[in-house]
Write a structure and sequence with these properties.
Elements (H helix, E strand, L loop, with lengths): L2 H4 L1 H16 L2 E6 L13 E7 L6 H14 L8 E7 H6 L1 H9 L1 E4 L6 H6 L1
Parallel strand pairs: 2-3
Antiparallel strand pairs: 1-2, 1-4
Helix pairs in contact: 2-3
Length: 120
């Protein structure tokens, strides 16, 4: 793993703080090979950000991701793959369901967790 990827927790926390600045209330999870302890030298770091409200088009979401990357002071080239989803989208996407259920929570508590969300 590269130096930045080895410091995934530090950078994931920076991404979580930046996501809160850009999006407001949100939950942030690290998932995939890093969370599962099977990262290799070429692994990226998957970060899921779940927010109550997000734009419905790719361009606007891409702009939000860029704002989060800049607010987190990530370098231009970095190993973080940032995924944005609403709770409704996370509910129907099995990869995101796994991220919420089995991933490493970095910033949780501003939103209800998925189990509570299902009750509402």
């Amino acid at each position: 793993m590269g130096q930045i990827a080895r410091q995934w927790r530090f950078w994931s926390e920076a991404i979580a703080k930046a996501a809160y600045e850009v999006l407001g209330s949100c939950n942030v999870y690290v998932f995939g090979s890093v969370a599962e302890g099977r990262a290799t030298g070429g692994s990226d770091v998957d970060v899921l950000i779940v927010a109550n409200s997000l734009p419905g088009n790719f361009r606007a979401r891409g702009e939000l991701i860029a704002k989060i990357e800049e607010a987190a002071n990530l370098p231009l080239y970095h190993p973080f793959q940032i995924h944005l989803a609403t709770w409704k989208e996370a509910e129907v996407n099995p990869i995101y369901q796994g991220a919420v259920d089995k991933g490493i929570p970095i910033f949780v508590g501003m939103l209800s967790d998925r189990r509570e969300f299902r009750k509402s």
